[in-house]
Amino acid sequence: MKNWKSIAKFLISILLIVSIIVFTTEACKIIAQLLILILLILTSGDVVRLALTLSSHKPLKDIASENEWDTGFLVGKCENILLFILVIYNAFTALSIVFAAKTIVRIEDLGSDEEDKKSLFYLAGTFVNVTYSILLALLAKHILYFL
Fold first, then answer.
1. Domain residue spans in the chain?
2. Smallest Cα–Cα separation from 128: which of 61, 45, 63?
3. How far apart are CA 7 and CA 31, in angstroms?
4. In the Cβ-directed half-sphere of 67, how many Cα atoms lie within 13 Å?
5. How far apart are CA 76 and CA 80, in angstroms?
6. Contact 71, 51 (CB under 8 A)
7. First CA to last CA across the chain, in angstroms?
8. pLDDT tens, N- to C-terminus, the chain (147 residues)
9. What's the CA gap between 132 and 40, in Å, rounded?
10. Taking the model in full, what pTM does it have?
11. For residue 147, with 0-12 CB atoms within 10 Å meaning exposed, 13-18 middle and 19 or more buried, which class applies?
12. What's the CA gap between 16 and 35, in Å, rounded?
């Protein structure tokens, strides 16, 4: 399962580089943006898991249950697509609204010490995912600008 994901990431990276170097038409700009979006969707979960593992010094199973990881994975992918589109269309105010809404939902979960720790991990994961999504979307915007 992990093997095909690594191959897909590699192929998308190669296609992205080739489309940037060889083609400069409008259609190729869109293809380059779509490839960056696909790369974002394929890699964001790994980036979030790596950041949370490194910051907590705990194995993944101790941070959250498998069901919570699966739910976070789905929400994270939707968040990636939404944030990517908002950055491409310069809707930066909407970015803050999305981030604030997720934060407010998590603040309601605060209660016991254990819940506080989990909520902090959710917020940290959200922050890493938002930052990574915005960085790749800005990269896609600059590709559009310079091509």
1. 40-146
2. 45
3. 19
4. 0
5. 6
6. no
7. 36
8. 456 667 777 777 777 666 666 655 666 777 778 888 888 998 888 888 888 888 877 776 777 777 777 777 888 888 899 999 999 888 888 888 887 877 777 666 656 566 666 677 778 888 899 999 999 999 888 877 776
9. 8
10. 0.75
11. middle
12. 6
| Encoded tokens for 37 | 């979006």
pLDDT digit string, tens, across residues 29-47: 777 788 888 889 988 888 8
**Which pLDDT belongs to residue 18?**
67
User: Following DSSP, what letter does each residue of 111-125 receive, concatenated?
Assistant: -SHHHHHHHHHHHHH
Q: Provide the token pair at 136.
A: 């790749």
Length of the chain equals: 147
Q: Which of 87, 69, 102, 85 is nearest to 135 (CA)?
A: 87
With a CB cutoff of 8 Å and minimum separation 6, the contacts of 46 are none
Tell the burial category of 13 from Cβ atoms under 10 Å away from its Cβ (0-12, 13-18, 19+): middle
* Euclidean distance between CA atoms 111 and 14, whole angstroms: 47
